[in-house]
Design brief:
The structure is a single chain. This protein is of the alpha/beta class and 290 residues long. 36% of the residues lie in helices and 16% in strands. It has helices spanning 2-13, 32-35, 108-118, 136-140, 151-168, 191-209, 233-246, 268-289; strands spanning 21-30, 54-60, 69-70, 75-76, 124-131, 171-181, 217-220, 250-252. A hairpin with an 8-residue loop joins strand 2 and strand 3 (69-70).
């Protein structure tokens, strides 16, 4: 009897573990228009809703390295600082992480703000892994994940780190969508021919690696890259449309109406608009799934 009483006291004294708080995890990846290279933080209106959204990021120049702008933690949604980009002479592909000394932001802010405008109670976490000037064959090919310069490997590594960090805060992350803004660097004679196959393989492999076989993929590219002088951009656009046509879980977004800063990048308003387009498309998909 004494033993049972002692056991009961120990049981009552043991801490009751709270159920984890579930967050929708949205992954944003790609090249400079996913980074938000020319989106200016000084032109971004403040919105208190940003404090409700969690952001983990690693963005910058290829290959992924210590010069990237990285959070290494879950922080409230905000523009990302410039960090310490490598000098442009240090490697052939060093662009400076962001064009502004204040840093920058990508489609994640327009995306999150629109979602929470529709549903202020939504629990949202965004994992942003993007590197300027990157192509699928050279940088994002999942078959090359063992290479040190693999952007795909960096995505998986950051996903694992971010997931573990969330667990320490009693948060459970559920992969909910994959946002892909890329294709400009593949607008050339060689890569444009295999872009549809390459992007399909990337999306399918990511779903397998994340154990999320039904993960929706929303894909986009700056359709005006090159200001009409790049003759391979139409092939990239058509390839993205083909990927979406062949995969019921993938949707192509037309960004042709988004304002641009130059021949490569969306400007501040364009970056916000692309994010809002992602959000509106995501909500339509959710409505169909639900």
């Amino acid at each position: 009897m004494l033993f049972k009483s002692a056991a009961l006291i120990v049981a009552l004294a043991a801490p009751i573990l709270a159920e984890p708080v579930h967050y929708d995890l949205v992954i944003l990846a790609g090249q400079s228009n996913a980074v938000g290279f020319d989106a200016k933080p000084t032109e971004l209106p403040e919105d208190p809703v940003d404090q409700k959204v969690l952001l983990w990021w690693k963005v910058g120049d290829p290959p992924p390295d210590t010069h990237d702008s990285s959070s290494n933690a879950w922080l409230p949604l905000a523009p990302q600082p410039l960090g310490k980009p490598a000098p442009k002479k240090a490697a052939p592909r060093q662009y400076g992480n962001f064009a502004q000394p204040e840093g920058g932001f990508g489609p994640e802010i327009g995306f999150a703000r629109h979602l929470l405008e529709i549903n202020p109670q939504r629990k949202l976490a965004i994992l942003k892994i993007a590197f300027s000037g990157t192509s699928i064959p050279q940088d994002w090919d999942p078959k090359k994940r063992s290479q040190k310069d693999s952007c795909y490997a960096a995505l998986l590594s950051q996903f694992q780190r971010a997931t573990q960090a969330a667990k320490t805060r009693n948060l459970a992350l559920r992969p909910t969508a994959f946002l892909w803004v890329q294709g400009e660097s593949d607008a050339n004679a060689q890569n444009s021919k295999t872009y549809s196959k390459d992007l399909t393989a990337l999306i399918q492999t990511l779903r397998t690696d994340l154990k999320a076989p039904n993960l929706p993929a929303l894909i986009a590219v700056n359709t005006r890259f090159g200001l009409g002088k790049n003759t391979f951009m139409p092939a990239i656009v058509e390839a993205q449309k083909q990927v979406a046509q062949n995969d019921p879980l993938t949707t192509y977004l037309d960004t042709s109406s988004a304002p641009i800063a130059n021949g490569a990048h969306f400007n501040t308003q364009g970056t916000l608009q692309v994010g809002q387009q992602f959000a509106k498309t995501f909500l339509k998909l959710k409505a169909i799934q639900d």
